[in-house]
Amino acid sequence: MSIPTNRRRFLAYLVAAPTLTVAAKIGTAEPALAAVPTPPAPADLLDLGDILILAGAPTANLLTLTVDEDGGATLHLPRAEVGQGITTATAMLVADELDLPLALVRVVLDDARPELLFNQLTGGSNTIRSVYRPVRTAAAAARARLVAAAAARWGVPATTLRTEDGAVLGQDHRATYAELTRDAARTDLGPTTVTPKSEHRIVGTPTSRVDARAMVTGRQRYTLDLDLPGHPTMVRRPPTINGTVRRVHNAEAVKAMPGVVDVVVVETGVAVLAETFGQAQQGKDALEVSWNPGTVDDEDDDTIRRKLRAAALPFVVPPLLTQYQDAEFDFAFVSHAPLESNTAIADVRADRAEIWAGLKSPIVAQQTIAAELGLPQHRVKVHVVQGGGSFGRRLFFDAALEAARISKAAGRPVKLLWSRIDDMRHGRTRAASHHKLRATFALGNVLTFEHRVASVETDFGHGLGEILTATAAELPVGGNLSFAQTVFLTTIKSPYHFGVTTQLLNEVPLRMHTGSWRSVYSANTRGAEEIFVDELARRLRRDPVAFRRAFLKTARQRAVLDKVAVEGQWGKALPAGFAQGVGFHEEYKSCTACLVEIDARDRAHPRVTRAVIAADYGLPVNPRGLEAQLLGGLTDAISTTLTAGLHIDRGLPLEGSYSQFHYARQADSPTDVRIFIMPPSGEPGGAGELGVPAAVGAIANAYARATGVKPRSFPINFPVDFEPFPR
Amino acid sequence: MPTYSFTVNGETVTVDAPADLPALWALRDKLGITGPKYGCGIDVCKACTSHIDGEAFNPCVTPVAEIAGREVTTIEGLADGDVLHPVQQAWLEQDVAQCGYCQPGQIMAAVALLRRTPDPTDAEIDAIENVCRCGTYFRVRQAIKRAAELMRS
Ligand code: FES
Ligand code: FES
Fold first, then answer.
1. Could you tell me which of A466, A161, A438, A478 has the C-alpha nearest to residue A316?
2. Which among A303, A353, B6, B145 is least surrounded, fewest beta carbons within 10 Å?
3. Which residues pair with A714 in a beta bridge?
4. Which chain B residue has its CA at the smallest distance from A607's CA?
5. Which ipTM did the prediction report?
C-alpha cells in the first residue's frame, strides 16, 4: 500500500509534538532543592495522554448528547467500556452539569465513526482526560438551551431561572426537561452562553457503577450474549505462532459430524461452524491439519533472553571515579487474559457487512475489514459492545477481522469464540523485557541515573485508532519502532531528582502477537526502577520511605507517600518472614504510592496480606471507581510479580489456561486493603493504568526485605508446574 | 438426537442435544440463558458456576445428560422477581463488579458457600477459586461478609 506523503507528515507532527510544546511549558518545572535536579523528561511536559487529547482535539466536540422526551439524557460515547467504569464516570459528568438524577442518564457506546479520526481510541488512561471538557460543555450547552426554551415560553429573562432535578424552575413556573426538549431544539432561540459549572454535586462523590445491577443479575450482555443470528464458530489454530494451514485432511468427515454446519479455511486457521459451541469445539478438535511454519518457531525463553541482553544499549557513565550501583532485571511475557476471551459476531453479505465486538479501536477495525472484504467503508457497520475485560487486549480487532473472513468464506453470519487455550497461546501478550540500571552517587546524592530497557517489540499496529496512523505504525522506515519510541518517551519518566537521568528503550522485532498491557512500558520499567530505588537506599543506608521523600520532586508526590507511610504504619515490627515494601509512581498527571505487607515464610508461595494505597488524580470524578481501578492494578501486580507469566517454547506459549498462567485467585489476595483517594488538586489525570507500577515495586521490595533475596526475574516463582495442553 | 428435560430457574425445559454436549452450551446456545459465562471450558475459571439441586456446579464440564430430571439455577434465577438475593444486594453495596464477566459465577459460588457456611472465615472465602481477571477479590471478600450479615438479620 502506498502512503501519500501528507499522511507521513501527520505522523511526523505527532512524533514532533513533545518538542514543539517544550518551550511553552518549560517554566512549570519545579526548582530543585537539596537534591541534584533532573531536567524534565518529555513525559513531564507532554505525556501520551496529551498527545491523544491533541490528536483528538479537532473532533472532540463531535460527542452527541441528547435530551430525550422522557426527560432523560443519552450520551453517545466514542469509547469502549471494558470494566474501567467510564460509562459511570461520564454519566456523572452529564448528571452534574445537566442537573439530572444519575439514573436518568444513559451512556451508549458509539459505533465506529470514521469522522472522529483519532478520537475513538480507548487507551493511555485517556478517556476521562479527553472527554472531561467536551462532555461537560455539551451538557452545559443542553442545559442552557433548556433554560432558554423555558424563558421564551414564560416570557421571562433566562437569568431568573435555574435548573434542578431534571426541571427548569422560575419564580412561578416549573417545567420538566421532558416538556421543554422539543422547544429547546428550535433554532430561533438565539445564541446561548455556555459555561460549565465550577461547583460539583455528583462529580467527586463515590458512586456505584451504572450497570452494577445488570451485572449481578446476569442481564449484562457481552458479545456472545447478544440475541443475533449466527452460527457458533471456533477455529483450529497452528502449533506455533503465525503458522498457516498447508492442508486439511478430513474436512468432509468433520462436516459430517453431528451439529457441524461448515468447515472453512482462513488465514489464521480452520474454522468450524456448528449448531452449538460444544459441537464447534468437537469439530475443530477432530480436524487433521498439516501446517506451515510460523514466524518464531525457533524461539524460546532462552533465545529471546539472549537477544534482549544483547540489545540493551550501553550505559553512558563509566563506573569510574564515583561510587555506583548496578542491577539487571528480566520480565517474562504476560497474557492479557481478559476473562471474556476473544469474541466477535460478523454478518458479511455481498454488498455490506455488520460486526459486533468489544473494540477499543473500532475505526481502524472498520477500515481494515472493509478493505479486506472489498467493500466501501460505509457499507461496513461496526458496533462496539461492552467487553469482559481488556487490559489493552481489545485495542486489537483480530477476532472481528477473523469473524468477517469466516463469514465471507462460509456465506453465513458467525459467532466466533476463541478457546481459552488459543486466547493464551495465539492471543496478545505483554512483551518480555530486560532492564539494566546504573546509578552513581556521592555525598548522599544521586548524580546520575541510567535505565536501559530492551524489550521485544510492542505492536502498536492499531495506531491512534484509525488507518492513517495504523498504517504509519506498519511502515518499514519509522514505522512501529518510532511509534514505540514515542509511546515510551511520552509515558516513561522518573519522579525523582536523581541528577542526570536517561531512560532509553531498544526494541527487538520478533513477529509475535504483542500489545500494550495495562500501563504499557511502565509496569516493568518503573517497577524495576522502584526496586532499584530500594536497593540504592539500602546502599546509602537510608530508609526506603525517607530516601524517596528526599528525592521526589513535588509536595503532591510526597503527600501520597506520606499517606501510605502513616496509614500503613511504615516500619512497624513484624515477625520473621514478614515484611513491608513500598513503591511510588506518577503517570498521566496522577500519582500514587503503595505499601504492602507480605508473608514470605514459604518463599515458593508468598502472599501479600495487606495493602495501603494512596492516589492523587487531580480531580477524582468517581472515587469509588478509582478505588476499583487501584484494586485491579494491585491484583495485576501481585500476579505478574509473584506468579503469572508465559513460557515460550518452540514458538508457542506453554500456558493455556488459568491453571497454568497463574493469575491471582482469592487465596492470593490480601485480606486487608485500604485505599485513599486524595482531595481534588486540579483536572482529571489518568486512572486505569496508574496502579500497577507502584504495586510491582512495593511487592518486590517487600519480598526482598522478608527473604533477604534480591528478586531479579519476574514472576519470582515461575516453574512449569503443569502438563502443557497438546499443540 | 436424544432429548433431555430438566428445570431451569423454576421452568421445565426440554432440549434436543447429544448426550455429551456440555450443559453450558445447552443453556446458552439452545435455551438462550446467557448468565453463565465461558471462561475456560475445563472447570478452571469457574465463570460458568451455577447451581444444580442447590449446590454449585460447573456446566462447562457437565454433560447435558447428567442434568436431566434435575433442578438448575443460573444467575438469572437467583433473585425473587425484582427482589434481589442478599448476596446480589451485598454485591451492589460493595460495587464489586468491574467488567462483570466473572460476577455471575462469583455470586453463585458465594451463595453456595453461604448455604454451607453461614459465617465464613477468611480461609473459607479463600477456598473460592473463581478467577476475576479484573482483580476484584477484596471487594468480593467484603461482599461475602456483608451478605452473611444481611442473611443473618
Ligand atoms: S467455563 Fe466453566 S469453569 Fe471455566
Ligand atoms: S469483574 Fe472482570 S473478571 Fe471479574
1. A438
2. A303
3. A331
4. B126
5. 0.98
pLDDT at A49: 58
A122 in Cβ contact with A80 (< 8 Å):
yes
**Tell me: the pLDDT tens digits for A481-536?**
667 777 787 778 899 999 989 889 999 999 999 999 998 889 999 999 999 999 99
A342-417 matches A429-714 in fold? yes
Q: Identify the CATH assignment for A230-297 out of 3.90.1170.50, 2.30.40.10, 3.30.420.40, 3.40.50.620.
A: 3.90.1170.50
The arrangement of secondary structure in A429-714, i.e. its CATH architecture, is 2-Layer Sandwich (3.30)
What SS3 string covers A626-692? HHHHHHHHHHHHHHHHHCCCECEECCEECCCCCCCCCCCCHHHCCCEEEEEECCCCCCCCCCCCCHH
The residues pairing with A65 across neighbouring beta strands, listed in sequence order, are: A75
The predicted structure's pLDDT at residue A182: 82
Identify the segments of chain A with pLDDT beneath 50: 1-34, 45, 54, 58-60
Quote the minimal CA–CA distance from A214 to chain B in Å: 9
Residues of chain B found within 8 Å of residue A419, distances taken between Cβ atoms = 41
A245 has a chain B CB within 8 A of its CB: no
Q: Which of B45, B95, B133 sits opposite A208 (nearest CB)?
A: B95
CATH fold, domain A342-417, is Aldehyde Oxidoreductase; domain 4 (3.30.365)
Question: For residue range A242-252, what is the model confidence (pLDDT) as tens digits?
Answer: 999 999 999 99
The beta-strand segments (E) located in A444-512 are 445-456, 500-508
| Residue of B38, B44, B134 with shortest CB distance to A389 | B134
Task: Check residue A2 and give its pLDDT.
Answer: 33
pLDDT for the residue A113: 78
- Average pLDDT (B106-119) is 98
Q: Which domains does chain B have, with CATH numbers?
A: 3-77 (3.10.20.30), 86-152 (1.10.150.120)
